[in-house]
Design brief:
The complex is a heterodimer of chains A (about 425) and B (about 525).
Chain A (H helix, E strand, L loop, with lengths): L1 H11 L7 H14 E2 L16 H11 L1 H19 L9 H34 L6 H8 L10 H16 L12 H12 L14 E4 L2 E4 L4 H13 L20 H16 L2 H6 L11 H14 L4 H21 L10 H6 L3 H4 L5 H8 L10 H21 L7 H38 L1
Chain B lengths: L1 H17 L4 H33 L15 H5 L12 E4 L12 E6 L4 E4 L12 E2 L6 E2 L4 E5 L2 E7 L4 E8 L5 E8 L18 H11 L6 E3 L14 E4 L10 H4 L4 H14 L4 E6 L8 H4 L5 E7 L6 H8 L8 E4 L1 H12 L6 E7 L7 E6 L4 H4 L9 E5 L6 E3 L11 E6 L5 E2 L44 H4 L7 H9 L3 H6 L7 H10 L6 H15 L1
Parallel strand pairs in B: 1-13, 2-16, 11-12, 11-14, 12-13, 15-19
Antiparallel strand pairs in B: 3-9, 4-6, 5-8, 6-7, 8-9, 10-14, 15-16, 17-18, 17-19
Helix pairs in contact in B: 6-9, 14-15
The chains are: A mainly alpha (about 425), B alpha/beta (about 525).
Amino acid sequence: MKESLIKFFHRIEPDKQKSPFLHTLYDGFFTFAFTPNHVTKGGVHIRDGMDMKRTMVTVVIALQLCYIFGTFNIGQQHFDALGMYPGVFEGFHLKIFHGLIQILPIFIVTHVVGLGIEFLYASRKGHPIEEGFLVSGALIPLIMPPDIPMWILILAITFAVIIGKEAFGGTGMNVFNVALLARVFVFFAYPTYISGDEVWVSGIEKSGLEHLSIQYGWVHHLLDGIFNSFGWSTFGPGGIPTIDGYTGATPLALAAKEGWEGVTKVYTETQMWWGNIPGSIGETSKPLIIIGALVLIGAGIASWRIMVSGVIGAVVVTLLMNGLVPDQLGPDTPGVFKFMAVPWYYQFYMGSFFFAIVYMATDPVTASATNTGKWIYGFLIGFVGMIIRVLNPAYPEGWMLAILFMNVFAPLIDHYVLEANISRRLKRAKAKTVTAG
Amino acid sequence: MLSVLVLMFSATGLFAQAGGGSSYFIYALVGAAVLIFFYLILQVSDNLLAIEAKQNGIEDMETNFSILPGIKDIFSAKLPDYTKGAPVKVLKRGHDILLEGEATKTVQEVQVSNYAVQPINFRGIAPIPKMLVEEGATVKAGDPLFFDKSNPDIKFVAPVSGELIAINRGAKRAITEVVILADKTIEYRELPTFDLEKNDRKALVDYLLGSGIWPLIRQRPYDCIPNPDDVPRDIFISTFDSAPLAPDLNFIIKGKEVAFQKGLDVLAKLTDGAVHLGLNARGEEAPSTAFTQAENVKKYWYHGKHPAGNVGIQIHNSNPINAGDKVWVLGIQEVVTLGNIFLEKRFNAQRTVALTGDELQTPTYINTYLGANIGDLLKDNLKEGNNRLISGDVLSGQQKASEGYLNAFDDQITVAEEGDYFEMFGWLLPLAPRPSISNTFPNFLFPKLKFHADTNTHGEKRAFVITGQYEKVLPMDIYPQALMKSIIIGDFEKMEGLGIYELSEEDVALCEFVCTSKQPLQHILREGLEMMQAQG
């Protein structure tokens, strides 16, 4: 069976000279199905079972819980806005399918565009396809708003992969985190699609002064037909008005205006902890991200140092800000003071800190390479990110910018860690000559 | 660290006051202040103790002068009692690769007809040395065969007596093997008597140069033959090997204790520093008394996983090599040969070699001589199949054909299965267990499990992506990845600064094994060392 499969694969192998692109494509899929029969040559004779594909796929596996919850939460937020099916399992199929309708195109477009560019570059440069985009491609859908237009997504990914990665020489050479670069592209090029209160809940649009759910498309109608035949509840035609007082504001937007009190007026703590709040697709559920983090730490893939020091950095800066707020907070106090007064543990209930520090900050290529450097790098991400989140009125959340900012400084941090190592060595030599002389 | 703590305390303080304040808070603050005060007193007195110790000249490694138990004392691995309280250097980082096919502790005699001296085994000599004997000549064991033109004093001698049947040449006519068809009973060239007490170092060096032992001494950095004009800062000997399936040196040294001690005595005369012996604190049983009761040496105990047994690691963790330093290293069997030059008055190149690997029918120890033919050593012992013969261990050994010869410094031959097969979804769902340090394999659940390892690369070569994984298995204050990158770009200053002098291929072999990107680290390091050596 295996032999005949391999024989079949060898028979269909395209010629490398005549059609390099097809050959690269073939090579990518063949090495996906079979680890090649390469043997060690010179150097070590046996090799660890770990390779890049396995490393990358472990991260993708750790992300799966976020994917499942993200899909569900797109639907949940949509129906919450309309005041329908408040319970988790009420209208469960509608929530899941609404989520799938939103997330599948994003996922497919991300991979087709990203991998397509990756294949193209691999064939032009004549090297095998590198696995870096497996993780970037899994991360990008999770950090986008659910209603992101496809053309923006395509532009963003093209920018991130070509300018952010291939221009520097491909996987392992990039300075910036590719997934975040895609997001920051949307953020600065098309800000209306990724900021404000309205983008975080799927399928709600503003008409006049009130919010309505969209007119459902043909996929929804097709599904309705199927659901009808089972006697299940259906989507209906759409155009339903939202509940009274609906704004779609995220906890962070509320906190920036009225502090923790303002947040708890709309969302309960449990709701925020479990992630039943509007936000980017995959970043809302804290426990599921923590499970993913434990998987990554247990597998030794992601750096626990960055995660721990990131948390410390965020806590330290929150405590400092807590210390700086005036004693009495009244109705006239500016919102920023109220935001500053939010205790550190509540800061973690809001926003995407966990997702950013677990999956984005720990990217080994763009983070510091040395262990000491990782402590500094993580701490500064926590520190800077929290400052941006609370003190900067222009940006509702700070982690994307903080991580990209620290990406730039990671080589500098490493440089000083290495310089310290070098001067330790010099000092050692000097001490030796002094005692000898 | 402390400042962060203080910062947090003060910040919580402000926050608590904003929240109304309470007397408990004041108590807590006073309590914390008192604790910090005592901590500071302890720290200061502790440092004074350490300074005192230094002034009294006690700065032996790792002695804890502190009144506080160090973190190491609380959390360190349980150390064996046979070290009798001597300081043990615990090396936290490393990994033992457990493989099937360990040699059983019996010594067997094997008939070997051909032996070879391989000039390429010795670094630092020209590829075409000057031959002293012709093809067809008969030689005794210890007779000079050739010398390096740049250093005519260093003689390379025959390990056995017999007829010189071939001078094999490789690329660019470089001499690869000088082959001797061995006599049934070996005749030795009688060496002149040498009085260690009466003669000075210069005379001793001249005597050793002609005896044949000189090329078996290696100089760090570079792992090359030492220059006879150099006086080494120190001499280092590791008395245990932690590599996969490595021979048990306690077993090999049995019956050679006297010669070993004699060798140490001679070495002590060659250096201004000391002869350092690295002792094994890993095992359940105490090492051989030949090592633990050796005289005229400084002893250091090491506890830790591979590469703790590598002499380079031991040097780094006791008396590191600084720029400009030259130290010498020897294996224990070379020390025995050296000792026998003075005891038996002959160049006795007898070697006990472990035949290992689960592709052998009976992995065992054998007695032979330097440069034995590998095919002869493994005759009737190989299992069927496509196997790779390795002189040395699976990490830093060299692949050999069965016509090949045991390398000069190796005391082990490993046979491993060639892994030239396709594995369906081998990266995702591997079916056969394989050695790995990654917890994505269930290996960590079975810490005692021994593996069958083949030579498959388990993946393709990639750019450096994962960081920190080399550091996990290299117990040195060195950043291997940064060093490798500086070698690749040829940055001499960085290479020297990041400690290239302290490394040899065997030290980074484990890093190469664990490398997710399947980079050839030993090869890169050698290139770097050659660049440095060429620079002078």
